[in-house]
Structure to design on (321 residues):
C-alpha cells in the first residue's frame, strides 16, 4: 500500500494464514518451503513491511540486517515519493537504493533525510498526462487530480487533503501540466505520476473504469483504501523497474522473493520467482502471489526472511551424502 493517505487500518485477510511451530507459513495445512537461495528481496512498504503505525518493528529491522549480512540484497519498492522514505532510509544497507513512485524513480537514500537523489527517472510525458486527465475526467465526472513531480505534489482545488503534506501549488490539472507553468522551476521537474480521486466510486470500480478509458496509454493502479488511483507512464510499474535493477546486477526473476499487499504490487509479485501476499492483502494480490505470509502487524516479511535464512543455514550444515 502506498502511504498516499493516512487511511484506515489494513483490511482483514480473507482467509488467515497460519504459522506452524517453527514459524514457517502454512496454507491449507501445507508448509510453504523456500525455493533456491534468493539473491534479492523486494518488499513494498505500507501495509507490507511497515506496521499500521508506519513503523518498522525491531524484529523486521533485525531480519533485514540478517538478509543483507547473508549476501541477499533488500530493495524497498513502493508507491511513496522519495521525500517520504525517511522511515526506512536507515535500513537500506550497502546499495542504498529504493524504487519509488510505483517504479517511476530509483532513488539513492544514502544521503539521509532530505538529501535523497534520483538515480533513474521514468517520467510520464506531459502530453500523455494531459490526455489521461481528459480521458479519466470524461469517464468519471467528479474526478479531481494531483500531479506528483520530482520536486513535490501539485493539485486541483477540489482534490481532498489526502496526503501527509500540503501541495506545492493549487490549480486545474491542465494548468499544472501546461508547457509553461506559472513557476518556471516546476517545468524542469519530471512528472512521476498523476493521482486521481473520486468522492463516490468504490476503489476497485474506479480502477476498472479508468483502465478502460486510458488503455495502454499509461499504467493505472491503486494502493489506497480510498478511490485514489495512481497513473504512471506506459509500461512503468514496480515490476518493470525492479526488472531493470535486477538485470543490472545479473539477477534473474527466479532469484527474487517479493512481498506486497495491494493491486500496485501484483505485477511485481507475478514477475518474481517467489512471492508472498500479506495476511492483510487485497484478494487480487493473494491470487497473484505464489505464497502467503501473516499480516504486516505480525511482521509477515520478517517471518519469511527468518524462514529463508534458517532453512538455507540448515541446508549448509547438512553433511554431504
Amino acid at each position: 500500500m502506498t502511504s498516499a493517505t493516512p487511511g484506515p487500518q489494513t483490511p482483514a485477510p480473507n482467509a488467515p494464514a497460519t504459522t506452524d511451530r517453527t514459524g514457517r507459513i502454512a496454507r491449507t495445512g501445507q508448509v510453504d518451503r523456500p525455493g533456491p537461495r534468493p539473491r534479492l528481496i523486494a518488499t513494498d512498504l505500507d501495509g507490507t513491511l511497515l506496521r499500521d503505525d508506519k513503523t518498522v518493528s525491531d524484529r523486521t529491522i533485525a531480519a533485514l540486517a540478517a538478509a543483507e549480512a547473508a549476501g541477499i540484497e533488500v530493495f524497498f519498492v513502493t508507491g511513496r515519493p522519495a521525500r517520504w522514505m525517511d522511515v526506512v532510509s536507515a535500513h537500506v544497507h550497502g546499495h542504498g537504493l529504493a524504487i519509488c513512485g510505483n517504479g517511476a524513480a530509483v532513488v539513492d537514500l544514502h544521503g539521509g533525510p532530505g538529501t535523497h537523489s534520483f538515480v533513474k527517472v521514468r517520467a510520464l510525458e506531459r502530453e500523455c498526462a494531459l490526455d489521461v486527465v481528459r480521458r479519466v475526467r470524461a469517464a468519471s465526472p467528479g474526478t479531481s487530480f494531483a500531479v506528483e513531480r520530482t520536486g513535490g505534489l501539485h493539485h486541483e482545488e477540489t482534490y481532498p487533503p489526502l496526503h501527509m503534506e500540503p501541495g506545492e501549488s493549487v490549480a486545474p490539472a491542465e494548468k499544472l501540466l501546461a508547457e509553461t507553468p506559472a513557476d518556471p522551476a516546476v517545468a524542469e521537474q519530471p512528472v512521476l505520476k498523476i493521482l486521481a480521486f473520486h468522492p463516490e466510486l468504490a476503489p476497485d470500480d474506479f480502477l476498472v473504469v479508468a483502465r478502460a478509458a486510458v488503455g495502454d496509454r499509461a499504467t493505472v493502479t491503486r494502493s489506497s483504501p480510498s478511490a485514489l488511483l495512481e497513473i504512471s507512464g506506459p509500461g512503468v510499474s514496480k515490476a518493470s523497474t525492479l526488472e531493470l535493477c535486477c538485470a543490472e546486477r545479473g539477477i534473474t526473476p527466479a532469484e527474487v522473493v517479493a512481498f506486497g499487499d495491494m493491486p500496485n504490487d501484483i505485477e511485481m509479485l507475478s514477475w518474481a520467482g517467489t512471492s508472498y501476499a500479506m495476511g492483510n492483502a487485497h484478494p487480487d494480490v493473494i491470487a497473484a502471489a505464489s505464497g502467503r505470509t501473516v499480516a504486516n502487524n505480525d511482521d509477515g516479511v520478517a517471518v519469511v526472511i527468518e524462514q529463508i535464512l534458517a532453512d538455507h543455514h540448515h541446508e549448509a550444515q547438512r553433511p554431504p551424502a
Summary: The longest strand covers residues 191-197. The mean pLDDT is 87. DSSP finds ten helices and 17 strands in the chain. The longest helix spans residues 300-317.
